[in-house]
Design brief:
single chain; alpha/beta; nicotinate phosphoribosyltransferase; TIM Barrel; 2 domains; 7-stranded antiparallel sheet; 6-stranded parallel sheet
Amino acid sequence: MYIDHPASFTDYYELTMAQGYYLSGMHQHTATFDYFFRKVPFDGGYVIFAGLKELIETIKHFRFSEEEIEYLVKEGFSDEFIHYLKTFQFTGNIYSVKEGEIVFPGEPIVRVEGSLLETQLIETLLLNILNFQSLIATKACRIKFAAGENSEVLDFGLRRAQGLAGIHATRAAMIGGLDGTSNVYSAQRFSIPAGGTMAHSWIQAFDSELESFRTYCKYFPNSAHLLVDTYDTLESGLPNAIKVAKELEEKGCKLKGIRLDSGDLAYFSKQARAMLDNAGLEYVKIAASNQLDERVIASLRNQNAPIDIFGVGTRLVTGDKSPALDGVYKLSSVKGKPTLKVSENIEKITLPGNKKIYRYLNNDGTFWGDAILMDEEKFLERMHHPTFPAKKSSVNDMKFEELLEPVIKNGEVVFEMPPVDEIVKYKKKRFNQLNPEYKRFDNPHIYKVGISIRLMETRDNLLTLLKS
């Protein structure tokens, strides 16, 4: 699913710069941009990369429509530039890590090559899609990790999402590891399992809670989850759910589950489990919702709350505690020459030139660390810390993988974009290769990301030239 009218899905200054490049004759200069982020959100140890398929599909349809051309004419853009835009399309190259990959700060996880004008024009689009989906995929991964593989976690976030962001939030949440969604729009478009229970309004619409449960189970006899906290969870909701469950058994059917949506979820889930088990309803599952996130779920797990299904919403789709991934898009080469952005803060000085990423593996196949190299380099003996070069590590004789691969060449898509379920399998495999110390919520271990000596020297030589 791509963004409609992608050419206008941008910041105004991208267009003014593009016109400036065109009118000054610079528009065909070759250029390379890197996409990377500087800080892991949620004070975590990793990021799940997501959004690539939407980005690539949108770039495929990147054209200036008559409507957009008319708007730019009204805005006073030059006739020459307008004429150029009428036939514009992206003809460059894009290299990327796979969706679902585990990535870390400072790594050029997407590299865009092409003319200066076209690589500049897609900046806002790229940042919007990749920053948001990677943020939500990471949050979802943390939530699923807290819940455990044996628990089901569902996305209930559409009604609390920031507008249409809820569409891509659901997709990203599935890549992060969630099991299904209440969001029908995204479920249909991205082939995601859909499901849900009922709202309190259903129960309130009937003369009694018992009647509401019986009516719902009449039409959904083998898939009903009864919401038991509308009036009184232990004195009314659960007894009525048990009564209806027993009536279903007499008809050869089974109640699927009950849902708790308020109160002390640890206490109520334990009481509910005891009441259900005492009634011979051990098969009935317990679902819980209400402002859940990874830390609340971890607390419930620590209290041995017997919850089988978690419904997460607001704190998932809004990226609660870290509402944005600080991904940036920086020029690293122009006219075939490496370039960089200088900053008083050494950590914000960018890495020049066309680069790639090698991931080094431990003997058991787990991730050891990543190195950033110049694209033409083939082999490393050691890598250096990006900001403290005296800190170095030998990578000689270690097995490694190259992470960047071409997805667009000369404007044509050359990588078959997998469906969401295949991306989920890849993410799960890669997450299993990440050692536990990077997954913990408190003070996670910092993953090693180094640079080659050649890249370090290229950067330092450029800094010397710029300061001379």
